[in-house]
Amino acid sequence: MRIVGGTFGGRRFHPPARIPARPTTELAREGLFNMLNNSMDMEGIKTLEVFGGTGSITYELASRGAEDFTIVERDPASIDFIKKTAAALDIAEKLHIIRGDVFKFMKQCTDRFNFIFADPPYALQNMDELPLIVFEKNMLLPGGIFVLEHTTRNDYQNHPRFQRMKNYGTTIFTFFTQTNE
């Protein structure tokens, strides 16, 4: 796994094989962050990554100036890897790791974020609930962006907060936005 841009760009980390994650590919991450660079200023933002896996999106955000990171993940091996990588990048003090169920966390969350990223297992049956919860719980700050990674089996173009969709082979990113209040 390689960080593709920003101040940590080019740094490599090797997640253990036992992590039950499907990390977002370098090509897809590079495309995602090219779009984000044109959509928002990442300097100093507060972020949430759910279904954290290896934490690769959070490291990209940190590399581009984000300041406050929350990752929700339930797998202990993934959490250990995230902690070690955060320490190596010297961002551990800015990182909040929540070990547990993503849906339970989101339904109880009272924090608001500038950016939320979700990379659930592609076979997750209740994936369509994620954008509903984000906006019902008002988890995004005004002007905030929520990105959901999924496959062609899911289509969110009719969601009222849908902004755009970008396809990278089998990976699709759907962008949702919170209007300025």
What does this structure look like?
It is a single chain. The longest helix is centred in the N-terminal third of the chain and has 14 residues, at 26-39. This protein has a single domain (26-177), classed as 3-Layer(aba) Sandwich (Rossmann fold). By secondary structure, it is α/β, with parallel strands linked by helices. Strands 3-2-1-4-5-7-6 form a seven-stranded mixed sheet, with helices on both faces. It has helices spanning 26-39, 56-63, 76-88, 102-108, 129-136; strands at residues 46-50, 68-73, 95-99, 113-118, 140-150, 162-168, 171-177.
In what range is the share of β-strand residues?
25-35%
Radius of gyration: 15 Å
Strand neighbour order, sheet with most strands: 3-2-1-4-5-7-6
Query: CA-to-CA gap between the ends?
Result: 38 Å
CATH architecture: 3-Layer(aba) Sandwich
Could you give a short account of the major beta sheet?
Answer: 7 strands, mixed
Distinctive features:
181 residues; globular; 7 strands; single chain; alpha/beta; Rossmann fold; seven-stranded mixed β-sheet
